[in-house]
Design brief:
By secondary structure, the protein is an all-beta fold. The chain contains one helix and 29 strands. It has one helix spanning 6-13; strands spanning 18-19, 22-26, 28-29, 39-42, 54-56, 66-72, 77-82, 87-92, 103-105, 116-119, 124-129, 133-138, 150-152, 169-173, 178-184, 192-198, 209-211, 221-225, 230-237, 244-253, 264-266, 275-276, 279-287, 292-299, 307-312, 323-326, 334-335, 339-342, 345-346. Strands 18, 19, 20, 21 and 22 form a five-stranded antiparallel β-sheet that branches. Strand 18 (221-225) and strand 19 (230-237) form a beta hairpin. The relative contact order is 0.16.
């Protein structure tokens, strides 16, 4: 029998849940209305076109485009950003099958939402709203009349104080209490950048800092490791006018700003991060349990070309992935951002739930 770490024993005796082995979970975008897209979990050792070990799927789920998800471990919930469904749908973390959400946050001001960050200690849910803004709602909100508690607004055009344009990824940095998004300039050449704001900012604040240089070009995803104090920026570049793309994971100190250079980059033919014009980068996530970085490469119209590539968190350079999932088992259409999700919770009684 494998020994249980002292910290886990302490949590068990305190009667708190302990996450089990982490696995990748991923949703995506449905082909067309009124079809739905499943939310699927895959084994950490699965490869290729392996089948998911469980799915949240069916009419009762209300899921249309589960493009992004977050796992909140203390309450044992997952918060799913349903893009064209224009809602945050909340489920028990280990639900399976045709299960209805326990709460739905869908006020009209939410619009199409791409990402969310649940913060239990602050009782807040931070979201990308209406493809333009960063809104904060009460974490335990429910229904279509929920009022936002704060907003970092678009502002419009090149004079926008917030610099928000069309944010596509969202993360929270606990040490500095900042939220960060990937975005791009209003004017040509529409340069990509990472914009940071104070979590508690409201209205039309100026950013606390902006990370922008040739190293942030083509940014499509962002993840944060608060333990190693690193930002993982998913980027790409083309040298043939957009027929093929070289994909990269550029790793920065989480204090980076202005034109600071990355600490290192994961890039090269062995990485399987490269893609062509029929694909796009769907996002990046971190699995702290398995110490992995997970990248989605989504097909545009051909589900067989979907791909999820995972690396050891310590990987650098032309690294070989530790896991590659591909094909129609990932999605009936196109995939969203992968996120980490345990397969079970161990409770004080010693049994898995």
């Amino acid at each position: 029998m494998r020994a249980i770490p002292i910290i886990v024993l302490a949590i068990l005796f305190a009667g708190l849940p302990v996450p089990g082995q982490s696995e990748v979970m991923i949703g995506g975008y449905a082909p067309a209305s009124p079809t739905q897209h499943p939310l699927s979990q895959f084994s950490a050792i699965a490869q290729g076109n392996a089948a998911p070990i469980r799915q949240i799927t069916g009419n009762a789920t209300q899921l249309y485009d589960p493009a992004f998800g977050s796992y909140e471990p203390v309450e044992g919930l997952i918060y799913i950003s349903d893009f064209r469904g224009m809602a945050i749908r909340v489920y028990p973390a280990f639900a399976s099958g045709n299960v209805a959400p326990i709460r739905v946050i869908n006020p009209p001001i939410l619009g199409q939402t791409r990402a969310n960050v649940p913060l239990l200690a602050q009782d807040e849910l931070i979201v990308i709203a209406s493809n333009c803004c960063i809104y904060t709602f009460p974490l335990h909100a429910d229904g279509n009349s929920v009022a936002r508690t704060r907003s970092i607004n678009w502002g419009g055009g090149t004079t926008s104080l917030t610099q928000l344009n069309n944010p596509a990824a969202l993360t929270w940095l606990p040490d500095t209490d900042e939220v960060a998004v990937v975005d791009y300039d209003f004017d040509t050449p529409y340069a990509s950048k990472v914009i940071f704001h104070a979590r508690t900012a409201d209205g039309y604040p100026t950013p606390t800092r902006v990370l922008k240089s040739a190293s942030t070009a083509g940014a499509a995803g962002l993840a944060h490791d608060p333990v190693q104090h690193r930002l993982y920026l998913l980027t790409s570049a083309t040298s043939d006018g957009g027929f093929t793309y070289t994909g990269q994971i550029r790793v920065f100190a989480d204090s980076a700003a202005n034109a600071d250079a990355p600490l290192y980059t994961i890039e090269g033919p062995s990485t399987q991060l490269n893609f062509d014009a029929s694909q796009n980068q769907s996002g990046i996530g971190i699995d702290q349990g398995l110490q992995r970085i997970m990248v989605g490469i989504s097909a545009n119209g051909n589900p067989a070309d979907n791909r999820m590539v995972a690396f050891d968190l310590a990987a650098t350079g032309n690294a070989t992935p530790v896991q590659v999932l591909s094909g129609t088992a990932l999605s009936p259409n196109s995939i969203g951002t992968p996120f980490a999700m345990p397969t079970a919770i161990i409770f004080a009684n010693g049994f898995d739930n």
